[in-house]
Each structure stands twice: as structure tokens, then as C-alpha cells.
Amino acid sequence: MNILEINNLVKDFGGLRAVDTLSLSIKEGEILGMIGPNGAGKSTAFNCIAGVYSPTKGDIFFAGKKINGVKPWNLCKGGLARTFQIVKPFRSKSVLYNVMVASFATTDKTAAAEEKALEVLKTLSFEHKKDERAGNLTIAELKRLEVARALATEPKLLLFDEVMAGLRPAEVDEMVQIIKNLRDRGITIFVIEHIMRAIMALSDRIVVIHFGKKIAEGTPQEVASNENVIKAYLGDEYVVS
Amino acid sequence: MEFFLESILNGICMGSIYGLTALGLTVIFGVLKVINFAHGSLIMVSMYVAYWAIIYTGVHPYVALIIVVPVMYFFGYYLQDIVIKPIFKAEKDVREPITVIIVTTGVWYILDNLTLLIFGPQYRGIQNNPLRGKMLDIGNMLISVPKLWGFVTAVITAAAVYWFLQKTRTGRAIRATSLDREAASLMGINQFKIYNIAFGIGTAIVGISAVTLVPFYNIFPSVGVLFDIKGFIIVVLGGLGSIGGAIIGGIIIGLIESIAPMFMTATWAEAIVYGLFLVVLFVKPSGLFGVKYDW
Amino acid sequence: MTRKTINTSALILLGVVAFGIPLVLRSPTYLHIICLLFFYAYLTTSWNLVGGFAGVLPLGHSAFVGIGAYTSTVLSLQYGVSPWLGMIVGGFLAGIVGILIGLPTFKMRGAYFALATIAFGEGIRVMFENIETLGPLNIRGPRGLEIPPTHTGFVNFMFNTKEPYYYIILVMLIGVIAFTYFISRSKLGYFLNAGGEEPEAAMSLGVNVARAKLIAMAMSSFLTALAGTFYAQFTLYIYPKSVMSLDLSFEIAFIALIGGRGSIAGPILGALLLRPVSDFSRIYFGSSLPGLHLIIFGTVLILVMIFQPRGLQEPLLKVYNKLLDRILQQAPQGKAGHEYS
């Protein structure tokens, strides 16, 4: 069953068409990657799915229900969570506090929310930082906090927006492992990523977009050898190994 | 009918002076993105500077501009440099620091009450100046001469500020900073220097407005409060950051104040001003003439 | 002995001292001052629910004080309703007004919101100054309302001595502190803090930010109005400039900010530190150095905002914790992270 289905999504900003008749679908339990050059419309597409923008045209279905224009907080309660490309922690609060805000999406009780948040921090081996003020974290830790918060809302589908950007190679490997573990726990995952090595290792399927349009789709190998993709995006800088 | 027309003309003149006071506020907001709550106090300080300058030299009130404008420019420049800059440095990633509102309120308290301590609560006015109480008689209508001077000054000042921002190098740097302070500093513009200059210019404009007021207005330590809220209302009416909007917003307030009392008590006119303000704020927060900036 | 037991016993001790003060301090003048001190601490704590937790800057809260004061006073003067009942009515009225003002304004950004609340507060004051009668209700414009001190007693919320007022406002203060504490530890408190700091992130995590703020605003205006009734019964004379002035709105906000917005202790600390300064400088220098207390107030405001933007509670809390460490002779432990909240 497809957990997410996008049909002919269009998003205009004034005269600019950021997303152009984009269609794609994600099966339950799958990891779908989305790549594309800067300004290709990846983040805009994400924001349409996450309810930040409402689409100009086209439909988005999540778990069989149409979610065009549904507010972010209601999407979250329905099981759709996301991270932000530019991290947005609650800086003056502790890590635990940050995650608890998210775990309140599943419970009204403070004690239960705290328990849930600690559990999430544990699965991400982030427990030792629970009392640290979010403002004092390193960028890698902040990215992990984004993941922890999204995870604490108990999502069925997780949207990761460049969650590995700015990380060192060792940290990237760690994050790839974390995401794979999440999938093993039954969460469907949709990632935007710039780091090729990571997205190739991670994704079951990859969608490539360019100027808001889908130009290729397939397994990492298929996409990597697709001529359109190499021309439009990978160019000379990427040598298929 | 003539009486009605007379009220309209006087309303426009007084309103343009309100607009001139608000112009200083809007220039500062345009660049720093903060509302300067010490605005009224700066008007008050300027009025005292103008008052003493005129009393000691005995010159025509408008000659006092030579003293008031530079004094207030540097007053504003260093007020921003010493008091407000530390906040911007501490809250770099905050787009619209509320803290600055609070700090400028502190400045307001200090300036108003320091003036009260030094000069006492009494009202001062420049009695024997060539403009005081003068009326221009146009076919049975009496127009206040000092307010007419104020109107002309407001129009000239607004035009000059517009020209300065559009045509000069510093003006362009100011506009660049107001659009995107990070990008501007990457282009080699010293963001904080620009803030100082903008604050100085805004305060200098406040100084000009004070000079237009002293020939007919009484001066006392809390005189600024009368212009404070009015200034906020005007800039929001006209659109925060818009130069023409400030003058037109001022004229709207001036007209309400001069026409409404014909139909109701003067205090109700005040209530109408607040009502109009709230309606504009809710219906079109970018103001009547403001462009929809994403400041 | 652990940190927690020390904290709890310190709080209990504080409570005992607070209840014992009128037994020792018999001067009506000083009791009057302390009553007003608690009145301010109550107001700043109520303000903090929206101004602190929700991360906005409301500068029109005196309107709610006025609504509370006028509602109970008009009801008791004209219809003989007990001020206690009027207090509740005023609270609900203020809560509704709070929601009405919050609905359009919470979408606005910082400066606009502050300006809208100022205009709203001033607008209400100007209306009250212009209106002699509101339908059947007599509010007497700028002259205000006097409550004749004839029927003293608990039901009439009117006493010959200061002590009953002292205990009433003390209980109200403890109540509002407990309420704020409860809110700060609840889902709503987390949502408010999150929405105030990073609205976009909060929304994506399931927080309906606007709704959380509206609830906070309704609660804050309800509680603020209750203090209005207390003030009316305490001074027996209210007029628009006394209970709905811009000065009062500003003072509430700035005392809370100096103490430390968003924390429980901050607003109370601010009132405890600043009110005495302004009271004493008014009493002793009021005639020779008028406005001195406002100069002090302004200077403290600027210095705190520059050097301790999170308010005085933070450094004081640090000192307190260090002191505890020294007493306990051990490394910091416990939930340090929660002390910010």
C-alpha cells in the first residue's frame, strides 16, 4: 500500500513555478530519496507535503486521505513528521524539553511524555545530553535532536530535509545507520539529501527532480547511470564508480 | 462651510507636523526593524534644545535648525551606538528583537524624568517669536501661520529624505541594510555603522519636527508622550518604513482631530483614532500605503 | 539532606514567614505597601502566562485590571452583588475580551503585537473616560467610582483593617503561582514555550501555536481581572487613569521582564526587588527629586536587558544553587535542565 501519493503537484510563487506537475508515491516501509540540484524545488515539495504551503494544483494523499492544506499540527497528529533543513531547536530549553514538546503529540500527561522522550533519546543514544541546553549543542547534535523530536511524535512517515548536511563523514555514517534502524522499526522514510554517498547507501528508490519536474526514478544504480540525471545534475563532478 | 474648510486646512497642517515626527520613527524602523519607544522623549529633548537655542540667541525659531539638527543627529547616533547596539550584538539571530522595545522604553523613562529633575515640571513657551499666534486670513478663513510653516517643512523634509535614500551612496547602503542586513554586511557595509547613521538621521528628523512645534507648542518634560502613541499609530497607518505613508498617516490623524470635534466631544475623537488604528492593524497590517514588505 | 528537601523546606519557611508578617508588623502604612507589592507580584505572574511563556509582549494588560475593577464595583454599587461574585463575572468578561483581542493579534509579529495591545488598552481607557452610563450601568466617565465604606465584612469584601486584605492578596498570589507552576509543567506550558521560541518547528511537532496562545491569553486576562476587583475593594476608589493607565500596563510588563520572563520566580522577584525601590524613592524623594524612581527603573531596565536579557532570576538562581552546593558539599545533581522552565 502506498502511504504517500502525490498526483501532479504544482506550486507557484508569483510567476515562479517551483514544483511542476510532480507525481510520486512511497510504499509503506520504504526509504525514498529525492535529489536534485540547488533550487530544484525539493524543499518546496517537502513543505507542500508537510502542510507549510498549500499546493497550487494537484493532490497529496497520506494514508489514503487527501491532505491538501491540512495544517502541520494536524498532519503531525496523523503520523506525518518532518525535520528542518535549517535546524530549529528551542534554544533556551534542554534537550529533554525539546523532545518532550514532540512527545506531547501522543499523550496529555507530562510523566508519560517524559518517559516517551527518554525512550526516544535512548534509541538515538542521545540520553547523556538530555539536560544540555539546546543552544549549546554542536551541529551534529542539533541534527540528531531534529530527528529525536520528529521521532517522538510517533510518525508513520518521516520527512528528512537534508538531515546530514554539515556533518563529518563519520557522523554521516552514524546518521545513515540511525535512519536504517528507524525503517526497521516500520517507519516509512522520505529523504532529501545532497550527500550522494549517503543517499545511495540509504535509499531503496530515488527520485530526481530538476526545475520542479521529475526527470528520473529508480533504484540508486538505475538513477546513477541514467543519462538525463548525469546531464542535468551529476554532471562532470560525479563519476559513477 | 468656510469654517469646515478652515478646519480641514488646519488639520492638514497640524497633521503634516505629526507626520514629520513619525517620519523619524519610520526611518529608524525601516532600517533597524525595531520600534523606538523613546521616540516621544527624543521629540521632547529636541524641543528643549530648540527652546534654549532660541531663547539664548534670540534668532528666528527656524534658524535654530542649524543647532538642533546636528545636536540631535549625534544624540541619536550615540544613543544607538552605546545603548542599543549591545542588544543587536547579543541577539544576532533574532529577526525582530523585542528586547530593543524594552530598552528604548528604559531610555524614555530616563530622559523624561531626568528632564523633570533638571528643568522642573513647568510649561515653557517662546512667547515673543515672530510666528506665535500669527494667523493668515484667506477669505474669512484663518490658517495658523506656524502650522503652515510646519506643513512646508514636512513636505520638504520628506522629499529630502526620499532623495537622500535613493540617490546618495550612504542612502543606498542604508536601503541595502534594510533589505537584508547579512547580505549587506557581506558586501562590505558595516551594519552597525549604518544602524548608527539611520538612528542619527531619524533623530535629526525628530529634531526638525520639534523646531516646527516650538513656535506654538508648550514645552514640558512629558510633552513627548502626546506624540509617542500618535507616532506609533501614524507609522502603522501609513505603513511601517514608508516615507510618504508617514506624512499621509499624520495628515489623516490631523484631520480626524480637527474635524471630529465638530460632531462629538474632542475626547471621542481620540477614541476614533484608536479604533481606526486597530481596524487597520487587523485588516491591513502593512498599512494603508505600505508595500507588503517581508521586513 | 538532598537539594529537593532543602528547596521544599525553604519554600515552606517562606510561606510561614509570609503568613506571619501581619502578626509582627502592625503598621498599616507598611502593610499597605506590602499588599500593593503582592498585588504587583500577582499581576506580573498573571502577565507572565502570556508575556513570558508565549513569547509575545502584551502592553495593554491594565485594560483587564480595569475590566475586573469596574465589573465588580458597578455590580456591587448598583445591584448589591457581592464583589466576590463580581470578581468572577469580571474575570470571565476579561477572558472573553482577551480572546477577542488575541484572535486577530496573535498572527502578528513582535512589534505589531505590542502596538496593537497598547492601542487596545488605551482605546478602552479613552472609552471609559468618555462614557457616563453604559446602558443601565453607571460608570461616571473620568470621575470614576467611589465605594462608600459602610458595610464592612467578608461578604462585602470590605474591611476596617489592612490584615484581611493582606491575607486575601497573599492567598491570591500563592494561588496564581501554583497555577503558573502547574501550567508550566503541563502540555500547554510546553506548547507555549515551544511556540514562542520557534513557531514553525512547534507547529510541525503537533502544536497549534495560535490556539495555545489564545488559551494562555484567556487565562491571563481572567486572572488579571481578579486583581482589579481586589484593587477596587482595597482602595475603594477607581477611575480610568488609576486602573487602566498605560503606565500600569508598562510597569506590569517591565517588572516581569527585569525579573525574568518565562520563569516562575522571575516576575515575583522583579516585583519584590523593584516595587520597594519605587515606593521608597517616592516616599522619601517624591517632593525633592520627582521621577527619581523612574530614572532608577529605566536604568535597571536597560542594564538588565543588555547584560542579563533573561532577567535577574538567572544569576540569582545560580548563586542560590552554588550556595546549596557548598552546603551539600557535592557536585550538582538533579534535574538541572528543568530549572530553566
Outline the secondary-structure elements.
The complex is a heterotrimer of chains A (241), B (295) and C (341).
Chain A: E1 2-13, E2 16-27, E3 31-35, H1 42-49, E4 57-62, E5 65-66, H2 72-77, E6 80-82, H3 95-103, H4 110-123, H5 139-152, E7 157-161, H6 169-184, E8 188-192, H7 196-202, E9 205-210, E10 213-218, H8 220-225, H9 227-234
Chain B: H1 2-32, H2 39-57, H3 65-90, H4 98-119, E1 135-138, E2 141-144, H5 145-167, H6 169-179, H7 181-186, H8 191-213, H9 223-238, H10 243-259, H11 266-283
Antiparallel strand pairs in B: 1-2
Helix pairs in contact in B: 1-5, 1-8, 1-9, 1-10, 2-3, 2-4, 2-8, 2-9, 3-4, 3-8, 5-6, 5-8, 6-8, 9-10, 9-11
Chain C: H1 3-24, H2 28-51, H3 62-79, H4 83-105, H5 110-130, E1 133-134, E2 137-138, E3 145-146, H6 163-184, H7 187-197, H8 199-204, H9 209-235, E4 237-238, H10 240-243, H11 246-259, H12 265-285, H13 292-307, H14 313-328
Helix pairs in contact in C: 2-6, 2-9, 2-11, 2-12, 3-4, 3-5, 3-9, 4-9, 6-9, 7-9, 11-12, 12-13
Describe this structure in words.
- The complex is a heterotrimer of chains A (241), B (295) and C (341).
- By secondary structure, chain A is an alpha/beta fold.
- In chain A, 37% of the residues lie in helices and 26% in strands.
- Chain A has a 6-stranded mixed sheet, with helices on both faces. Chain A has a 4-stranded antiparallel sheet with strand order 2-1-4-5, with helices on one face.
- The longest helix of chain A has 16 residues, at 169-184.
- Chain B has 11 helices and 2 strands; from the N terminus they run H-H-H-H-E-E-H-H-H-H-H-H-H.
- Chain B has a two-stranded antiparallel ribbon with strand order 1-2.
- Chain B is globular.
- Chain C has a single domain (13-328), classed as ABC transporter involved in vitamin B12 uptake, BtuC (Orthogonal Bundle), CATH 1.10.3470.
- Helix content of chain C is 72%, strand content 2%.
- In chain C, helix 2 (28-51) packs parallel to helix 6 (163-184) and helix 2 crosses helix 11.
- Chains in contact: A-C, B-C.
- Chain B binds chain C through residues 29, 33-35, 83, 86-87, 90-91, 96-99, 101-103, 105-110, 112-114, 116-117, 121, 221, 229, 232-233, 236, 240, 265, 267-268, 270-271, 274-275, 277-278, 281-282, 285, and chain C through 57, 104-105, 108-112, 114-116, 118-120, 122-123, 126-127, 129-130, 246, 250, 254, 257, 289-292, 294-295, 297-302, 305-306, 309.
